[in-house]
Amino acid sequence: MSQLTGIAASNGIAIAKAYKLAIPDLSFDKKKVDDTSTEVERLTKALEISKSELEKIKEHARTSLGDEHAEIFSAHLLVLGDPELINPIKDKIESEQVNAEFALDETAQMFIDMFENMDNEYMRERAADIKDVTKRVMAHLLAVSFPNPALIDEEVIVIAEDLTPSDTAQLNKQFVQGFTTNIGGRTSHSAIMARSLEIPAVVGTKTITEQAKEGDILIVDGIDGDVIINPTEDEINEYQKKQENFEKQKQEWAKLKDEPTVSKDGTHVELVANIGTPNDVEGVINNGGEGVGLYRTEFLYMGKNELPTEDEQFEAYKSVLEQMGDKPVVVRTLDIGGDKELPYLELPEEMNPFLGYRAIRLCLERDDIFRTQLRALLRASTYGNLKIMFPMIATLDEFRQAKAILLEEKENLTNEGTEVSDSIEIGIMVEIPSTAVIARQFAKEVDFFSIGTNDLIQYTLAADRMNERVSYLYQPYHPAILNLVNNVIEAAHAEGKWAGMCGEMAGDSIAIPILLGLGLDEFSMSATSILPARTQIKDLSKEELASYKEQLLSMDTADEVEAFVREKTNQ
Ligand code: PEP
Ligand code: MG
Fold first, then answer.
1. DSSP-based three-state secondary structure for 200
2. Residue of 76, 140, 478, 502 marked catalytic
3. The pTM is what?
4. Whether residue 304 is found in the same domain as residue 390
5. Torsions phi, psi for 524 (to 5 deg)
6. What is the 455 CA–ligand 2 centroid distance (Å)?
7. Taking a C-beta distance cutoff of 8 angstroms, is the pair 41, 155 a contact?
8. Contact assessment for residue 7 and residue 203, using Cβ atoms and an 8 Å cutoff
């Protein structure tokens, strides 16, 4: 057995065999063949297997993730059935007497080059489809297994270098017991997805893909961040116990599911959830969420080949609002860039994507994309209690411009005779230090703040949230962060507005007492953190915690803050 330590990214314990998610080696040799009909047969067979796999994946994606995720596989199926691609491969095998691998690669490459050089965006997307499909067919020709996370049908723990949000979205949590990756941090998007899927995860192990083989037995301890490869009998027993205790604790927490969140001395705060898709709402309700504090809409734009239409978006927003009834739903407008890419937008590569062209910066320039989203949101606004917020606001001008576009689209819709709610609050994410520093000026114009500490911490301490080597600088309890957070809360309250937090810090058991003492009104976190947080808050006195405020804000280090909170709250 060997043990690795990474970052605990999603609670719980998983014990199962390893499933490696990696593109296999697809290299091959060009061969001359005499028997071309056998080669054509091999090709036909590989195409058939690929087709039936894709049909299954598409069906799976449709039922578990919705039509929009299934669409990408329809495009792949079209490629597989296209005689204009398939016939030239067969012709090449026959006329040049070459093996199927070579004919497939050469022909596909010719089409890929041709489509990639076209002006038309739709055609360029077809190049990406052909690339994807060719890999799958090639894997079957070479008889190497091709990873299909959506098709996993036995209990496994997925191991990978990293998981893209769309890989994560394909995981079926009935079978995938957990996952562990080489890279990533607690706030990387695969970690966030793991928490919304409620599967244990440990990220940032650096070497899990080297240390573990397919089929090895793994224990993933998402509570403490450990991964054990081929554990002993004793270790399995020990972790099964830990798993049972965790389940018992969950039952305790569940008793507070339908209770409001009230501190020992009677202060009510809102405990709401972060979601990525309408499917996550079920988890919010099951975990007693009092609303949605952050709906990350970028997942609607990911894992597909083109921008989602206004109607597609409208359906998603309406579904979330309807499911949440009269509870608040804060929807964040598109926050693409950083570690969330949209290949079909073909944005040039940047040296510092987290400091680059992303989120509101992109939306204000590509206002066609922005207006489509805003119209879909405004149309959905009559189905529930909608609040809209803009991400990555660095200047008041950005907020004013974004709000003006929103109001313009509202007016357009009203003129077209479409009903739009009149009580939509418009707020911003505070995740850039400049905004936290002049929160007072912003508070006069916004309806609310939601502090995005995942980014605020990385920008304040200049430490990339994805980079494990600088993760020691990722310090939520750093006095600089506490001062910025306090500044935002005070600024909001001075103008009679509310301040929430939707970064991971809001669900952290050391941060919660601090934030309660600073007067935070709304805590938005992974759905699974809500009940433990409610249980914790029930035993805290807000008044007592508020009395520590000046002391905490003037401390020297994060360690000092942490030690103080641990002592005062018996943690
Ligand atoms: C944040 O930055 O804290 C946040 C909630 O946004 P994201 O994690 O999506 O960047
Ligand atoms: Mg952010």
1. coil
2. 502
3. 0.76
4. yes
5. -115, 125
6. 5
7. no
8. yes
